[in-house]
Amino acid sequence: MLLRQHEADVSVSADGRNFDDLFERLADRVHGGLKGQLRLSASVRQLRNTVLPHDGGVCAVLDVGAGLGQVALQLAADGHRVTALDISARMVAHIETRAEQSGLRLRCLHGSVQSRHRELVHDAGGFDVVCCHAALEWMTDPEQAIGLLSTLLAPRGALCLLFYNNAALVHRNLIRGNFRRAQAPPQPGTAGGLTPTHALELATVSAWLEAAGLEVEHRFGVRAILDFLPPALAEARGLDTLEALERWLEQREPHWRLARYLHLIARRAQA
Fold first, then answer.
1. Spatial CB neighbours of 7, under 8 Å, sequence gap ≥ 6
2. How far apart are CA 192 and CA 200, in angstroms?
3. All residues at 6 or more sequence positions from 198 whose CB lies less than 8 Å from its CB, including other chains
4. Which of 121, 122, 124, 135 is most buried per CB count within 10 Å?
């Protein structure tokens, strides 16, 4: 069962990039291969192990920048009350179709955090979990977005940020011999491409969370090795081997800090 709520379609919102025009490329290149599978399996496993109850309890979950809905659909299948929010009308329609096909109850919202904030903040008691996975780096003002997201949390709710890590780009350029690019300031992606607007620093995002009154409880690296392997070697090793290796590295110093994505899970600081 779906609850559909839509806004007028826009190409860019205050939240940043709208992927209506890149729907097929995103589905194929980002989510269709090993990299997408590993990112999804790692992020969902980390949510289940840290913030979601193991006793059958039900959480109110908000997935901001839900994209193709992989996280939202998996958590809805687990029995949680999920709201999926995205500024792309095509993404929202895709999630609705997938939910209907699977018989899942899911609320879908078309719009931005800013435009939907007033109604979201009035959701009874706030959200137990707010996910913002691979979206923060595309937002026009990611610091402001963290502040807004923090206001949507229940008193002990968790904000779960998965974001594109600039340290991984520096490391990758170094091992490829691109020394000038490694030492240059972070460069935004080109218009129409799949490289994010911002490559973010761990210290910067941690400071934004602190300013929003949140404390980081868990830190994970996601894809700490895959992105540095030759593609043929990665394919030869296979998904199961790479998943096991990623689990071994996701909190191991210093490797997690160099992963392509960082996953921070934070809660309201206790007085």
1. 110, 111, 115
2. 20
3. 136, 137, 138, 139, 142, 164, 186, 188
4. 135
How does pLDDT run across 225-264, given as a tens digit for each residue? 999 999 899 999 999 999 999 999 999 999 999 999 999 9
Measure the CA–CA gap between 57 and 61, rounded to whole angstroms: 12
Map tokens 């992105």 to a residue.
Answer: 227
DSSP letter string, 125-163:
T-EEEEEEES-GGGSS-HHHHHHHHHTTEEEEEEEEEEE
Is the peptide bond between 254 and the residue preceding it cis, with omega within 30 degrees of 0?
yes
Count of CB atoms within 10 A of residue 55's CB?
4
Quick: pLDDT tens for 156-211: 999 999 999 999 999 999 999 999 988 988 766 555 556 676 789 999 999 999 99
Alpha-carbon radius of gyration of the chain: 18
Residue whose C-alpha is closest to residue 65's, from 49, 44, 86: 86
Strand-pair category, 81-86 with 60-64? parallel
CA distance 64 to 111: 10
Work out the end-to-end distance of the chain between its first and last CA atoms, rounded to an integer number of angstroms. Answer: 40
CB-CB contact of 94 with 2 (8 Å): no
pLDDT at 30: 53
| Residue 64 near residue 154, CB atoms below 8 Å | no
Q: Which of the four pLDDT bands, split at 50, 70 and 90, describes residue 8?
A: very low
Q: Which residues pair with 264 in a beta bridge?
A: 161, 219
* CA–CA dist 139, 85 (Å, integer): 14
Helix (H) or strand (E) run with residue 262 in it: strand 261-268
